[in-house]
């Protein structure tokens, strides 16, 4: 397959996501099918342990190989602009600096949970860059892009995707954004 998921996965067994689309939210499964890359892996987890810190502690996955995808919203001339921001769990997205400038909005903030869930078609705590709406930019920190394998959400709280960071960097709409993670 060409990827070693084991370092990022800790104690979990990982399989090809293409062979286990049932472990992915529908928009995520559609994106994974379209990508058609065997290096995208998936593993089932306890949904109570979906939050990054609990996940890493329970399954022995290194925090520095776990990435969070947050939905950010900003307004300009009455238009709401959204983006998915992917940063390592050891950092925070620079929402009111780098993201605000990229979206060209006066103020940017994390989208409400209701909006993030409704617009993405994913569960809160499982949001992932795979399958986000096509008109949203996916902003990826360079450290995520160069990771040999990174854990991200699957769109559901009951599973995680493990994939090389380079795959996240080449998703449709993805942009490497220097300074995104601080």
Written account of the structure:
The protein has 182 residues and is α+β, with helices and mostly antiparallel strands. It has a domain at 6-70 and 114-172: YbaK protein (Alpha-Beta Complex), CATH 3.90.960.10. Helices cover 26% and strands 24% of the residues. The chain has 7 helices and 9 strands; from the N terminus they run αβαβαββαβαβαββαβ. The protein has helices at residues 6-9, 26-35, 52-59, 95-103, 113-120, 142-145, 165-169, and strands at 15-16, 41-44, 67-76, 79-88, 108-110, 138-140, 150-153, 159-163, 174-176. The strands form 2 sheets. It has a 5-stranded mixed beta sheet. A 4-stranded antiparallel beta sheet has the order 1-2-8-7. Strand 3 (67-76) and strand 4 form a beta hairpin. The longest helix is centred in the first third of the chain and has 10 residues, at 26-35.
Summarize the structure.
The protein is α+β, with helices and mostly antiparallel strands.
In helices, the fraction of residues equals 25-40%
- What is the name of the CATH topology of the domain at 6-70 and 114-172? YbaK protein
The CATH homologous superfamily of the domain at 6-70 and 114-172 is named: YbaK/aminoacyl-tRNA synthetase-associated domain
Which overall shape is indicated by the principal axes computed on the Cα atoms? globular
Our Rg estimate from Cα atoms comes to 15 Å
Number of helices: 7
Average pLDDT metric = 96
What is the level-2 CATH architecture name of the domain at 6-70 and 114-172? Alpha-Beta Complex
- Kindly report the spatial arrangement of strands forming the biggest sheet: 5-3-4-6-9
Largest beta-sheet characterization = 5 strands, mixed
Overall structural class, as computed from helix and strand content, comes to alpha+beta
SSE topology string = HEHEHEEHEHEHEEHE
Task: Give the beta-strand count.
Answer: 9
Contiguous low-pLDDT stretches (5 residues minimum) are none
- In the CATH scheme, the class of the domain at 6-70 and 114-172 would be Alpha Beta
